[in-house]
Specification:
Elements: H1 12-36, H2 49-73, H3 99-102, H4 104-116, H5 121-142
Helix pairs in contact: 1-2
């Protein structure tokens, strides 16, 4: 059974998987830096915005892991001594978007989709209005009914 999503201590399996992916991403970054060069040169590593995003994510993840290991090593006087960049991990989802720039057909499709968005602005505004109306109606309809779903009045 999965833990509560707000639980600050995930199962050990997730930590191990995170370390594996961090090692893979770090290895990819190092190999690209060796192959392309870091900053200097025409096609160097930090000249591509996707690589800049990868670099920031990997570095913050490495700092976060280093801070967590130091915090786990023993108690300290300062409770906030560990560096936590868990919000930056959400940007890892954007890594598969790099395939858009490498596949011609997908790039044409995404360009057409993005260029069609301004013409759909009225439709999107109406759709947002419907979502807002039904969200307010659902909040009023179900307000408080799901809070006591596992509560027995007799036993407390």
């Amino acid at each position: 059974m999965l833990n509560n999503p707000i639980d600050p201590n995930p199962p050990a399996f997730f930590n191990e998987v995170e370390y594996v992916f961090l090692v893979l991403y770090t290895g990819e970054m190092v190999l690209k830096i060796i192959g392309l060069g870091f900053i200097m040169g025409e096609g160097s590593y930090l000249r591509d915005w996707w690589n800049v995003m990868d670099f920031i994510i990997v570095i913050t993840s490495l700092l976060s892991v280093g801070g967590n290991e130091e915090a786990a090593a023993g108690p300290s006087d300062d409770e906030d001594s560990g560096f936590n960049a868990s919000s930056m991990r959400a940007f890892r989802v954007a890594r598969p978007l790099r395939t858009i720039s490498s596949i011609k057909g997908l790039k044409v499709l995404m360009t057409a989709l993005i260029s069609a968005l301004p013409m759909l602005s009225d439709t999107i505004i109406i759709l947002f209005g419907f979502f807002l109306t039904f969200a307010i109606a659902g909040t009023q309809l179900f307000s408080g009914t799901l809070k006591n779903r596992c509560f027995n009045y007799q036993t407390g």
